[in-house]
Design brief:
47% of the residues lie in helices and 13% in strands. It is built from 18 helices and 12 strands. The strands form 2 sheets. It has a 9-stranded mixed sheet, with helices on both faces. Helix 8 packs across helix 18 and helix 16 packs across helix 18. It starts with 13 loop residues before the first helix and ends with a strand.
């Protein structure tokens, strides 16, 4: 295979990159130990070509780890892997590469290598929108709204592409024409969950699918907690929308705190299980989300005002519903009659208008316009 087919010519010479790829894909040896091997042998090809005795000189490996490296030399086809990556349009970046995200270089235990289908985040600011898989309709709509608002403000949206909150955060950003990035707990060539295949394909065009796991790696429960450090590491702010007391989102929040990344949480009723995690974060000092302006303040985005958001929100059906509200409360049935929309559709639009702070619910199923 000619060097020109080796993806991403970076700081490490092309001749060495396929050996670096091999070393990364050796299973059962930690990134820390792989880096120690690189420090000792100086070049990945030397690691590949040395025998068991020379590997033991590095004094970084157990006998089992040496056996795994020897086995990988026989079973890992570097040329076939590179050809597959080219067909899949997947790039790879090592921690030594200048294109490797600076934010990730600065975290504890940065990924030795990341695979990217699409592109790496390019915008100055990025926000992670994360939360429960089994979330409420309120949580879904709020995550989508935050995603849309971030895209409108030119902020990248990061998430784990999991069902629920993560999915709706990605979806909101993409629907608004923004960039979103999914950090996977499987290989970048696998869409998980598969029901998100449309988002996966769209994200590869207007954002990226990112994973540190070798291609073909199936989603496993132990992959997800580790990948959470990448979600927080690429972000300037982590927003938890809904989360139970014991939630993977809280692991991401903990990583964020340790990395010096701000954390924000959506408050909820103390009796709601899906609010326990968020309320706990707020109690521990996380920022409280009440509106998009809160995010703008933290990210130092100037002039994020409700009137500006209003212009983005009130389109088509939303404008119709908003125009039928007044300072005098109207019932859900009355608004449905005036607009001709179903009550289900009306409720969805009313929820978004409430989240924007444009209307409020003074009594159950009665809605009135707020003065702006």
């Amino acid at each position: 295979m000619k060097d020109k087919k080796i993806t991403n010519s970076k700081n490490i010479h092309d001749e060495q990159r396929k050996y670096m790829l091999w070393l990364h894909c050796v299973e059962g040896v930690s990134d820390v130990k792989k880096q120690k091997l690189m420090d000792f042998f100086k070049a990945p090809r030397e690691v590949y070509e040395c025998d068991r005795k020379r590997l033991s000189f590095a004094k970084a490996l157990t006998e089992e780890e040496i056996r795994l490296i020897e086995s990988s030399k026989k079973n890992f086809d570097m040329e076939k892997q590179l050809e597959y990556m080219e067909r899949q349009k997947i790039s790879f970046f090592f921690v030594h590469d200048k294109e490797y995200p600076e934010k990730l270089k600065n975290i504890q235990n940065p990924p030795f290598c990341i695979f990217v289908k699409g592109q790496l985040p390019k915008r100055k600011r990025a926000v992670a929108i994360i939360g429960a898989r089994e979330c409420t309709n309120y949580g879904r709509q709020l995550a989508k709204k935050i995603g849309r608002d971030m895209a409108a403000l030119g902020v990248d949206v990061i998430g784990g592409m999991a069902r629920g909150i993560d999915t709706y955060g990605h979806r909101g950003a993409l629907e608004e024409g923004g960039s979103s990035y999914g950090i996977m707990g499987c290989g970048a060539d696998i869409c998980y969950p598969y029901e998100n295949i449309e988002i996966y394909e769209e994200m590869a065009k207007r954002g990226g699918i990112i994973s540190e796991l070798p291609l073909g790696s199936e989603p496993r429960s132990w992959h997800f907690p580790k990948r959470n450090r990448i979600i927080s590491g690429l972000s300037d702010l982590v927003i938890v929308v809904e989360a139970r007391k014991k939630s993977g989102s809280l692991i991401t929040a903990e990583y964020a705190i340790n990395q010096g990344v701000d954390v924000m949480a959506v408050p909820g009723r103390v009796t709601d299980g899906l609010s326990e995690g968020c309320n706990s974060l707020i109690s521990d000092g996380a920022y409280i989300f009440t509106c998009t302006e809160d995010i703008g303040d933290i990210l130092k985005i100037k002039n994020v005002k409700k009137n500006e958001i209003l212009n983005n929100v009130l389109e088509k059906d939303f404008e119709v519903v908003y125009s039928k509200t007044d300072l005098v409360p109207a019932s859900l049935q009355e608004l449905a009659y005036k607009t001709g929309f179903s009550t289900g559709k009306i409720l969805e639009i009313l929820l978004k208008l409430q989240l924007e702070g444009l209307i409020y619910e003074p009594a159950k199923n009665y809605y009135a316009r707020k003065s702006i």
